[in-house]
Q: What sequence folds into this?
């Protein structure tokens, strides 16, 4: 009954958060997972009762980069790979704002890989959501930093010979205080992780595993969007389940869960202390 | 304010602070590093913020992000870093975000000679980013002028909602001069205009008088969209030809219609001159000396020092040169701004003086060029 009583409220979310003046439909292919991530972000923001004026949604370039234009926040569609660097400047001058950055895997980890690891190391208070579909969808299915070994891509017509980045593990190693991985199948879990990430003081990363059925999926005969959605359901395990599995059993599995949740001083708060100190010494 | 011995890079940092700069992002590079170091120390003293980013691409991106948040923001670099910044400089031009980019030029191309002066980035400052776009670039020739033009760069950026480039060179950046800075109370500061329209009626890129959009900083209740895609008056992407080109023409027009405000230059002795010397940046110092030497020898030489090099002072140069026989253009490159001079006054009138060996052009070299013309005649 809880879910039923939530219905009237849910049905008003699009009125409250989508831009009425924006010409719909959106750019995404039918069956794409990116809209599911956007829905999770909207429900997380709504659940936290954030003032829309205090929320900034930034993106880079690519299919995921088109996400901000549809929502009624302060939205900034930046250049390829640089969304975290733009967000760093914005967060420093507007530390009270909730700055959420959405990126694809190529955007966040190839062209923007340097900004990703340094934002994590610096621990600036941004929410970084990486929609990982393992390819460059907008340009038609080239291999990305998370394309699986052996997969076909338009730029790997004989099969991919590079190892993929494990996004969540990379973020943990780079120093992020909060890192979680969910999938676009496990929507409520994803919303929960995004809520935790927005609430976290510091650089919080959520990897949302998705798919691209129109490029990589088609080339590799991985089936339709529902087929690929089913794979997310069947091939993913929780961190708890993974703990009891051998390395061989974990091969090809998507491990979901909160990989780290630790307290590390946040950058803009530390900088405020720098200002106090500099002004005291100057006086 | 009392007189001080000050380096050009320091004057740039102090000028930025005086203009109201409260955010700096940069990456170490010779000969611009001092600007970052000074900003790291000085900005928190005035409640501003400094960050050393992981590269120059991140630096200009953070600067644009900070400006979207409402801060007057700046970065400083040299040729190699300036090249890395080009894509996002175009973003700032496209999305009409005010910011200041300082390029303390060193000898290129590539790593070149990091501690040697040059003026090789003149064309990169104008055309470094892709696509048609407006550009304002200022070039100081003394430490005091560096202070003044840095203030001016911020004022132009805020007034016209556009990136402004301060094109220094290693000589000016590292040179120390005795300077007297102006009383802070007398410094003119331009603040972002914003809007008087309530949020529900607000269209960020509506074509306002003077063609400058009334962009409001993020976080102040005006929620809107900013993108590097071609966009309509609401900031939403558009592919309509009837929206794209008129819009592009507007961002170029907003600069071109204000040339009387933007074009800064000094001129003297042009009225009865037979030869004109046009120079800018560090080279203008040698040129000024050469002009004085030539006048001592009885030559009628006019001097035009350009402080605004982009947009190019086409009509000023045309007017100054129309009665003259010859124009001499010294530059620490193989000939860049001279292409503009030649375009305006004709190649037959122009004598180039170029050095790209890491040394400054000596007054004697410019003097020789002035007198060579006399001999030819």
A:
């Amino acid at each position: 009954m809880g879910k039923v009583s939530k219905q009237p409220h849910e049905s008003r979310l699009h009125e409250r958060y989508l831009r009425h003046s924006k010409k719909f439909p959106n750019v995404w292919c039918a069956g794409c997972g990116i809209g599911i991530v956007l829905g999770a972000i909207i429900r997380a923001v709504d659940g936290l009762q954030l003032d829309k004026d205090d929320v900034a949604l930034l993106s880079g370039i690519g299919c995921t980069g088109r996400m901000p234009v549809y929502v009624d926040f302060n939205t900034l569609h930046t250049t390829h790979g640089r969304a975290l660097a733009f967000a760093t400047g914005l967060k420093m001058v507007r530390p009270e704002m909730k700055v959420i950055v959405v990126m694809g895997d190529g955007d966040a980890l190839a062209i923007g890989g340097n900004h990703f690891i340094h934002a994590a190391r610096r621990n600036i208070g941004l929410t970084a959501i990486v929609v990982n579909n393992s390819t460059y969808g907008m340009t038609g299915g080239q291999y990305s930093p998370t394309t699986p070994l052996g997969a076909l891509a338009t730029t790997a017509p004989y099969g991919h010979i590079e190892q993929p980045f494990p996004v969540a593990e990379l973020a943990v190693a780079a120093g992020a205080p909060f890192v979680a991985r969910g999938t676009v199948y496990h929507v409520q879990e994803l919303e929960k992780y995004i809520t935790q990430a927005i609430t976290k003081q510091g650089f919080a990363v959520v990897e949302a595993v998705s798919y691209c059925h129109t490029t990589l999926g088609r080339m590799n005969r991985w089936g339709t969007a529902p087929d690929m959605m089913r794979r997310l359901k069947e091939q993913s395990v929780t961190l708890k389940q993974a703990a009891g599995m051998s390395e061989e059993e974990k091969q090809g599995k998507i491990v979901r869960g909160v990989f780290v949740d630790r307290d590390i001083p946040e950058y803009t708060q530390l900088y405020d202390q720098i200002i106090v100190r500099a002004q005291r010494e100057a006086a | 304010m009392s007189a001080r011995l000050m380096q050009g890079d320091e004057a740039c940092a102090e000028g930025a602070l005086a203009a109201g700069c409260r955010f700096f992002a940069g990456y170490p590079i010779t000969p611009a590093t001092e600007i970052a170091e000074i900003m790291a120390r000085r900005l928190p003293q005035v409640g501003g913020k400094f960050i050393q980013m992981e590269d120059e691409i991140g630096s200009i991106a953070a600067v644009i992000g900070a400006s979207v948040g409402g801060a007057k923001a700046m970065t400083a670099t040299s040729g190699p870093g300036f090249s890395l910044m080009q894509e996002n400089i175009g973003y700032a031009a496209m999305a009409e975000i005010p910011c200041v980019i300082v390029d303390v030029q060193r000898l290129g191309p590539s790593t070149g000679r990091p501690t040697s002066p040059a003026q090789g980035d003149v064309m990169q400052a104008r055309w470094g980013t892709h696509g048609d776009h407006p550009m304002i670039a200022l070039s100081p020739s003394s430490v005091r002028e560096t202070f003044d033009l840095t203030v001016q760069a911020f004022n132009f950026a805020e007034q016209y909602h556009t990136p402004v480039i301060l094109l220094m060179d290693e000589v000016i950046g590292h040179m120390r001069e005795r300077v007297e800075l102006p009383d802070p109370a007398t410094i003119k500061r331009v603040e972002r205009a914003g809007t008087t329209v309530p949020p529900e009626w607000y269209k960020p890129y509506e074509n306002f008088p003077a063609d400058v959009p009334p962009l409001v900083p993020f976080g102040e209740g005006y929620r809107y969209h900013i993108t590097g895609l071609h966009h309509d008056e609401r900031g939403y992407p558009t592919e309509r030809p009837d929206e794209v080109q008129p819009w592009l023409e507007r961002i170029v027009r907003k600069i071109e219609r204000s040339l009387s405000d933007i074009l800064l230059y000094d001129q003297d002795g042009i009225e009865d001159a037979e030869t004109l010397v046009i120079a800018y940046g560090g080279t203008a110092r040698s040129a000024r000396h050469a002009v004085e030497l030539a006048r001592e020898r009885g030559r009628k030489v006019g001097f035009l020092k350009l402080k605004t090099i982009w947009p190019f002072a086409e009509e000023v140069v045309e007017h100054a040169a129309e009665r003259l026989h010859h124009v001499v253009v010294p530059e620490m490159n193989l000939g860049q701004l001279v292409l503009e001079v030649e375009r305006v006054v004709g190649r037959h009138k122009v004598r180039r003086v170029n050095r790209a060996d890491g040394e400054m052009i000596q007054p004697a070299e410019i003097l020789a060029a002035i007198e060579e013309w006399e001999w030819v005649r």
